[in-house]
Design brief:
The chain is an alpha/beta fold. The protein is built from 15 helices and 22 strands. The radius of gyration is 22 Å and the shape is globular. It holds the Pfam family PGM_PMM_II.
Length: about 475
């Protein structure tokens, strides 16, 4: 291969291998040839020759063929590929954890239909980031693309397995919903994998006993073209259908899942969004209480730096230790393992559980909310307000051509007005006096999209709005 061609291969892989997963446009950055090379490289990096590798995929049109290409590359390098077919990302984590095998999940999560990607796990659903093996997988894959994949003498096989029923049964052992009051729930699966997992876990599709839940399905048909709306509930426009349906059906609450169903968002009976930080606080209290009742002390709970200030306050008040981290699922999985944390919450609606191998599981978080909410009589709007006392902007995305220049404008504007923290992007904690409401904001580049993300919180709505508008003007001044 010429040096120019070699350079092109490296550049193509650099474009799709992100900080903690693979993500790109099908047919451009991602092709069957590239995916096959990544499969071979993955087996080498995790030492899976002679052992099992789990491969699952979502409902995108390209996912089955990509999963097959990955399996071919993995088998060529000696792995026994366990194909679990259509699944949610947290279902693939269950397979990785329960089989103690490395895994690859084909999904682009909430991204539009043109995209696909891979989320990798080491055995036991442990994360892989650029710093912990993903860069090596990228470099090995580049070599295979340039020189061809050399099959090992003992080639692997490809087997099929269905783990949905076991996954659903396991989640029900972690949260018991049998004794809650009857609830009517509208669930928006967004034509994503929640359409497969919700009927299995919360319904009877997997052969489990009925729960006191009436499920009103919205967009449960698996369709990777996302004909109704993008499967990204973090964007308010994608919650509108759910909010309307909750009110129309007189439901107690609504749940919205993203495309690969590893994130879950909650809507109250009025159609109001319950913040992921409030969900994190609710689940944290339940998990702290559970392990405390079992005699556990020195309990750690993780929260990322853009969750509400109320989350660490809640953790501390419950007698546990809040551990602040950067944003990103593989990074937080590493911290879950390093700290032994019982739970971890992100404001992006990723929720991590020690009892789920430290991996994230939106369905499990939803079950905790149902259990806590269903164990009392107040409506969800009133119940959730207890866990949401401050004013959050939500994540606001801006396309920015010159990120350093935007940072410079922000630093100059807020020098002397706040404390600066660069754990992940730029966080500014306001310097306030007396009874002035607190405020903070975080600005950070996206790892998967050409965006600058802003999150702001204030002690009250006016304070948050003033800071939000000022920072947004600085970001968008170019």
């Amino acid at each position: 291969m010429t040096s120019a061609a070699s350079s092109d291969v490296r550049a193509r892989l650099d474009a799709v291998v992100k900080a903690y997963d693979v993500r790109g446009i099908v047919g451009e950055g991602l092709t069957a040839e590239t995916v096959e090379a990544l499969g071979a490289a993955f087996v080498d990096e995790v030492g899976a020759a002679g052992g099992r590798v789990v491969v699952g995929h979502d409902m995108r049109d390209s996912s089955p063929s990509f999963a097959a290409a990955f399996g071919a590359g993995a088998a060529a390098r000696g792995a026994v590929v366990v194909s679990i077919g259509l699944c949610s990302t947290d279902e693939s984590y269950f397979a990785s954890g329960s089989m103690d095998a490395p895994a690859a999940m084909f999904t682009a999560s909430h991204n539009p239909a043109a995209y696909n990607g891979i989320k990798f796990s080491r055995a036991g659903a442990q994360g892989i980031s650029l710093d912990t093996g993903l860069a090596a997988i990228r470099d090995r894959a580049a070599d295979y693309l340039e020189q061809g994949i050399t099959p090992v003498e003992a080639r692997g096989a490809i087997l099929e397995a269905d783990v949905l029923a076991d996954y659903a049964a396991y989640l029900r052992t972690l949260v018991d919903l049998r004794g809650i009051r009857p609830l009517k729930i509208v669930v928006d699966a967004g034509n994503g994998m929640g359409g497969l997992t919700v009927p299995a876990v919360l319904g009877e599709a997997a052969g489990l006993p009925a729960l006191p839940l009436e499920i009103v399905p919205l967009y449960f048909e698996l369709d990777g073209t996302f004909p109704n709306h993008e499967a990204n509930p973090l964007e308010p426009a994608n919650l509108v259908d759910l909010q309307r349906a909750v009110v129309e059906h007189g439901a107690d609450l609504g749940l919205a899942f993203d495309g690969d169903a590893d994130r879950c968002f909650v809507v109250d009976e009025r159609g109001g969004a319950v913040t992921p930080s409030a969900v994190a606080a609710i689940v944290a209290l339940r998990e702290i209480a559970r392990v405390g009742a079992a005699g556990e002390t020195n309990v750690n709970v993780i929260h990322n730096l853009i969750t509400s200030r109320f989350v660490p306050e809640t953790i501390e008040a419950a007698g546990a230790v809040p551990v602040r981290t950067r944003v990103g699922h593989s990074l937080i999985k590493d911290q879950m393992k390093a700290t032994g944390a019982v739970f971890g919450g992100e404001h992006s609606a990723h929720y991590y559980f020690r009892d789920f191998w430290g991996a994230d599981n939106g369905m499990l978080a939803a079950m905790h909310v149902l259990a806590e909410f269903g164990g009392q009589e107040a409506p969800l709007s009133e119940f959730a307000a207890r866990f949401d006392p401050y004013a959050l902007s939500g994540e606001i995305n801006s396309v920015v051509d010159d990120v350093p220049a935007a940072y410079t404008r922000i630093v100059e504007a807020f020098t002397g007005r706040g404390e600066f923290d660069e754990l992940d992007g730029l966080t500014v904690l306001g310097q306030t006096a007396g009874d002035e409401p607190f405020w903070w904001f975080n600005v950070r580049p996206s790892n998967t999209e050409p965006l600058l993300r802003l999150n702001v919180e204030g002690g009250d709505e006016p304070t948050m709005a003033v800071i939000r508008d000022e920072v947004l003007a600085l970001i968008r001044a170019e």
